[in-house]
Amino acid sequence: MKNNNDSLNLKKKKKIFISCGEMSGDLHASYIVEEMRKKDENIEFFGVVGDKSIKAGVKAVNHIKNNDVMGFVEALKKYRYFTKKAREYLQFIRENEVETVIFVDFGGFNLKFFELLKKKILKKELQNLRMVYYIPPKVWAWGKGRIKKLRKFDDVIVIFPFEKEYYDESLRKDKSKGLKVEYFGNPFVDKYDFSDKLGKKILLLPGSRRQEIEKFLSIIVKLIRNEKVKNEKFLMKLANEEHKKYIRDFKEKYKIDVLKIPNLEITFDEIKNIRKDCKYAIATSGTVTFEISLMGLPVIVVYKTSAINAFIARHIVKIKYITLTNLNADKEIFKELLQEDFSVEKLLKEMGIMEKNKKNIVLELKKEREKLGNFGVLKKIANYLLKK
């Protein structure tokens, strides 16, 4: 006979809200959700996520594709949208009795959202929440001002050793208390196998945002059609089928059908499946350049934004490199062609250098990977997030 109190004895589901803003954050979030669900099935995940986290089991309150912004000016244009959404997420957290909020990267929005939640908690308009910043804002690039805000978080978890060193050194000098930064290794080490074998194709990675893809194609199409590389085979990987729309938009604007260029192939396959066919990559700066470095594939990193965004970045950002692989190594392993340097002429020059140096770069990448910890990083992060 069924006990009438069975329903009362069932363990109450723990509810976690995840806030990320772009594809790299969604990827990281999906990994920790998968690992946490292996250890505890009695958790419900909700949040602002993308397809990968949804597949991992997160119920989407909003999709990250609605957050598609690139640069300072575009972010300002969407200020009202983000303000409205922050209040909607707050209401959802309150109504669903969420216990933990995990913020993943996307500092411009997430720090403001955190402040809103904290204010409501202090006013007793919201229950107390455990608030975790996983992959916090890049204070080593933007300056130490944001460290003061991060002190108010319950937990801060970074994924690079140089970040941990930066925080620890900054906090020692400041003699401040209340912020302990955790580092367990880099989660991508669990996901990508290293290989020193190189194929014959050149991998093209245009990015995931519409503006990035258009700016990338405007230069790369000229490169591919250049007589000097007519015998090369190019393989362009797009994030998903929806991005074919950007290719069609490009055709309409520039009267060039990218899909019909003879020495160019388009793929939607995962990079780990096509890596063996490639000898190096030309990639828009982003998390993907770090991912492929862990697989042992050399990269020429490119990036172009609007003149005003570039001006602001050059006067605010305080770093020598924009590529995570270079930052972690504290030297230039990957050539970075930014703004006016992202040109056909510069690319042809760097491609010539790459052909001579690619095997040496692979050896450098192997050394850099060894700095990032051994397999089992995600398990450690999941255990830490579940222990409280």
From TrEMBL:
GO terms for biological process: lipid A biosynthetic process. Pfam families: LpxB (PF02684). GO terms for cellular component: membrane. It catalyses: a lipid X + a UDP-2-N,3-O-bis[(3R)-3-hydroxyacyl]-alpha-D-glucosamine = a lipid A disaccharide + UDP + H(+). InterPro entries: Glyco_trans_19 (IPR003835). Condensation of UDP-2,3-diacylglucosamine and 2,3-diacylglucosamine-1-phosphate to form lipid A disaccharide, a precursor of lipid A, a phosphorylated glycolipid that anchors the lipopolysaccharide to the outer membrane of the cell. This is Lipid-A-disaccharide synthase. It comes from Leptotrichia wadei.
